[in-house]
Amino acid sequence: MVRPRLVLVCAVGVAVVAAAPLSAQESSLPVTAQPLTSADEQAIAAHLDPLVDDLEHGDPAKAQRARDLIAAPVRGPASVSFRLYYSGRLDDAIARMVAPTADPWRAGLALSVAGAVATDPMLGVILGALDDPRPAVRLAAARELGTTLEQVDADNDAIQDARLDAALRRAQRALEQEPSVHVAGTLALALAGPETPALQDRALAAMARGFGAWLDARGPAGEPDAEETLLTTINVLRVARMRYVNRQIRGGAPAELTDAVLALARAARAAAGRAVDHADLADRASAVADALTQLAQG
Q: Is 249 exposed, middle or buried (0-12, 13-18, 19+ CB in 10 A)?
């Protein structure tokens, strides 16, 4: 079951839609088959191939419908064999659609498919898009990293654990260097999303380190977006505190996570101290940082 995602409310040009009921054709797909037969592969190809063409070349209505129909079978439980074969028939088209010269709107559609499919190649596309020069594409990539982590959190084993560790490190670096406040906030919340302890410890620590370093680099008063920086910081700190409480309840947070959370709180207090023209928001950010510190030290 996919949980509601922690998001910053925004207009990104690509709607995030709930999974629609499966059509008769989708219901007949071998979603749980392990391994796939040749007949299974033929059924997947018959479903996917015309939709991929619409996704890449169709008008906006056809492209959005194709996105929904491609993503629907993999938004819930699916076997590793199904995901990998499904991904293999999509990989080339999705990579083309997210290329730096591609249309940003269509890139957002492609990234929403990548997040739902949640395989190593699709994760690679998402991570690459975090470095895209276009903010709208980076925003979509940040959002869909959250979708992928939800899939992993829900026992999707199509992504190897070592690959996931490398992905979290890369996402942390992207967060540290992100020029957009809104993209940084969305990426931070994506990393804060997982709830199972094994993944949460690593993802939340990556978020805390990355967002703390991002705050340290914002300048004397968080300019040029001091107010938005403070609002985003308050939101991220509150989510971090909630996740840290949940982790404590379920057996206690490891030292590495605690150290990262404390460093995040220190960076937030320092950023608030620099925001001399936004005293009220700075006080609120400092108060949430203090509460997080007390919790982690407590």
A: exposed
Q: Which two tokens stand for residue 7?
A: 């998001």
Same domain, 188 and 129: no
| C-alpha dihedral (219, 183, 264, 285), degrees to nearest 10 | 70
Question: How many percent of the chain have pLDDT more than 70?
Answer: 89
With contact defined as beta carbons under 8 Å apart, do 272 and 288 qualify? no
pLDDT tier for residue 15 given thresholds of 50, 70 and 90:
very low
Given a cut of 70, whether residue 17 has pLDDT beyond it is: no
User: Range of 97's domain?
Assistant: 29-159
Query: Is the pTM for the entire model greater than 0.85?
Result: yes
206 occurs within a structural domain: yes
Residue pair 29/39 in contact (Cβ under 8 Å)? The answer is no
pLDDT in tens, 154-177: 777 899 888 999 999 999 999 999
Domain co-membership, 73 together with 191:
no
In the numeric block, which tokens belong to residue 9? Answer: 């409310």
